[in-house]
Amino acid sequence: MEKFKTKIKAVYDNQGKTFDRFTVVFDDIADYENHYTCLGMSFNPTSPQGIGQHSSCKMGRHMGKRIKFDQLPEECQIAVKSMYIIG
């Protein structure tokens, strides 16, 4: 699988309001409605009982609390790093 080079624009934690609790927003070019590529994840995104799904999102308070990448659970960090070259 080819990795994509990108930068992280923001990381959100909705503190358990939904199963895909964590969202990583990537610093690609936003579309005309200001939506960015993102990855929504549960605590265990690579598990059959978890979720890790790409989508597009509009950043804002509705996404939850902004956190730092290193505050994500280790499984989430691994999922992002396995798909992307960050930097």
Stretches with pLDDT under 50, minimum 5 residues: none
Count of individual domains: 1
Tell me the number of helical segments per DSSP (H or I, 4 or more residues long): 1
Morphology call: globular
Order of helices and strands: EEEEEEHE
Radius of gyration: 12 Å
Task: Tell me, rounded to a whole number, the average pLDDT.
Answer: 91
Beta content: 35-45%
How far the N terminus sits from the C terminus, by CA atoms, comes to: 19 Å
Number of strands: 7
Biggest sheet: strand arrangement? 5-4-3-2-6
Helical content stands at 10-25%
Largest sheet: 5 strands, antiparallel
Category from helices, strands and their pairing:
mainly beta
Q: What labels describe this entry?
A:
87 residues; mainly beta; five-stranded antiparallel beta sheet; 7 strands
Please explain how this structure is put together.
This protein is mostly beta strands and 87 residues long. It has one domain. 11% of the residues lie in helices and 37% in strands. The protein is built from one helix and seven strands. It has one helix spanning 74-83, and strands spanning 4-6, 8-13, 22-26, 36-41, 52-57, 65-67, 84-86. A five-stranded antiparallel β-sheet has the order 5-4-3-2-6, with helices on one face. The protein has a two-stranded parallel ribbon with strand order 1-7. A hairpin with an 8-residue loop joins strand 2 (8-13) and strand 3. The radius of gyration is 12 Å and the shape is globular. It starts with a strand and ends with a strand. The model has no long low-confidence stretch (mean pLDDT 91).
Outline the fold blueprint:
Elements: E1 4-6, E2 8-13, E3 22-26, E4 36-41, E5 52-57, E6 65-67, H1 74-83, E7 84-86
